[in-house]
Design a protein that fits this description.
Largest sheet: 11 strands, mixed
Strand content: 25-35%
Length: about 425
């Protein structure tokens, strides 16, 4: 409770110019009551957004937390009134005021869908899209200076008016979603924010312990209940399927983004998971490892980022121990960038399966991105068996990044790890 109060206070400080919520009832039947905060309706470019809460008459189950129930959802929805489509940016779920589940997606990457008629999203969309725009008082003709013209074109950044636990699923009748990692995501808005993107680092005032304070979009880094990385312990043996991957297409380019070294792959490498297909997008490296196993840290960890057609994410994590030189890393490190810059086309052919251990046993758990905005709902598959990299290869990566780039281990909060 103390943590919730502190988060609320933080949100109030960030959103100090917002007005008190004014909840209006949109629908009330024997299944659910749908309410919308009129004060949260905002227009940005051609999109509108609003906070909605859904109170359920009987407890519901989220596929991501099948062992837990909830009876209240709060969601931030965006509306394309012209196309009659909606997108979910944030949602959080409660059971009797206790936060049960949180996941997150950057609003700029949210996927717009046509809501099913008479569902909660459809009802909210009809209310928001039919709402009257604020009346603009007539202006007195005056000579307009160049400065005035510039100022009137500025767009105020959207700020949430609800607790910082705001998280994301597509809708209350569908599965939770995570960050949309498609190459050309739908933009919620094309208007530019006033001021630069919040800077974050791995140390100091902008380090992991302060990420949530840097931007309203990062609040889930502190308020989330399913954050990554974690320490693997107390896992449960279950009949999970063997890892099913197609890894026949090589890496495309490599670059240093200031936080890590990232390698992008050509299209075609796939991960089959939960009756869906996830395409390999990129691999990022962290030293020392972010996840730990039985409290043990590794000198290097690789995260293979996958996304399905809806933007749901799955990550395969591979640990490195210090030992023999790694042939795949040797090829990549020939073009290892030691400064931040644009992607460079790789000269050598490097395949994703070059980084996979022969024994493909893995731990599975639900987690998040390990960097801001720390979006949740990410499927994690952490390989049990490490592969090797030489001390020289590990040191070369550290020198290129110029700092450790591992987020500290996060609390499990009741999550189950299976193997």
């Amino acid at each position: 409770m103390k943590r919730l109060i502190s988060v609320l206070m933080l949100c109030f400080a960030i959103c100090n110019n917002s007005q008190a919520a004014q909840w209006v009832k949109l629908s009330d039947n024997n299944v659910e009551k749908i309410m919308l905060d009129k004060q949260s309706i905002l227009q940005q470019d051609k999109y509108k957004r609003a906070w909605v809460k859904v109170e359920y008459k009987t407890p519901q189950r989220n596929p991501e937390t099948i062992d837990k129930q909830y009876n209240l959802s709060k969601l931030l929805w965006y509306f394309d009134c012209t196309a009659q489509k909606t997108a979910t940016s944030q949602v959080f779920q409660y059971l009797n005021s206790e936060l049960i589940y949180s996941a997150g997606i950057d609003s700029k990457n949210a996927e717009f869908i046509e809501p099913v008629p008479e569902t909660d999203m459809d009802i909210a969309m009809r209310y928001v899209c039919q709402a009257q725009k604020p009346t603009i008082a007539p202006t007195v003709s005056k000579p307009v200076s160049a400065k005035t013209n510039i100022d009137t074109q500025k767009t105020t950044e959207i700020k949430p008016e609800v607790p910082a636990q705001a998280v994301a699923v597509k809708s209350t009748e569908t599965k939770a979603v995570s960050v949309n990692a498609k190459s050309a995501p739908i933009k919620v808005t094309e208007t530019k924010k006033v001021g630069p993107t919040p800077r974050w680092t791995y140390e100091g005032k902008e380090g992991p312990e302060n990420w949530a304070k840097l931007s309203p979009e990062y609040t889930i880094c502190e308020a989330g209940r399913n954050q990554s990385p974690i320490n693997i312990e107390g896992s449960i043996h279950a009949a999970i399927k063997a890892l099913r991957v197609i890894q026949k297409f090589p890496a495309k380019d490599i670059f240093n983004n200031g936080h890590t070294v990232q390698v992008n792959f050509k299209e075609g490498n796939m991960l089959a998971l939960d009756s869906g297909a996830f395409q390999l997008k990129q691999v990022q490296f962290h030293a020392p490892s972010e996840n730990t196993i039985q409290g043990k840290s590794f000198p290097l960890e690789a995260h293979f980022m996958h996304a399905d057609s809806k933007g749901n994410l799955a990550v395969i994590g591979v640990m490195f121990t210090e030992g023999k030189s790694n042939p795949a890393l040797a090829k990549l490190w020939e073009q290892l960038p030691d400064t931040e810059g644009l992607p460079v086309i790789l000269k050598n052919r490097v395949m994703p399966n070059d980084f996979m251990p022969q024994d493909k046993g893995y731990f599975r758990f639900s987690g998040s991105l390990t960097t801001p905005p720390c979006s949740e709902g990410v499927r994690w598959l952490l390989m049990k068996n490490p592969i090797t990299a030489s001390k020289e290869q590990i040191d070369a990566f550290k020198k290129a990044v110029h700092h450790s780039n591992n987020r500290p281990v996060q609390a499990l909060n009741g999550r189950v790890i299976i193997q």
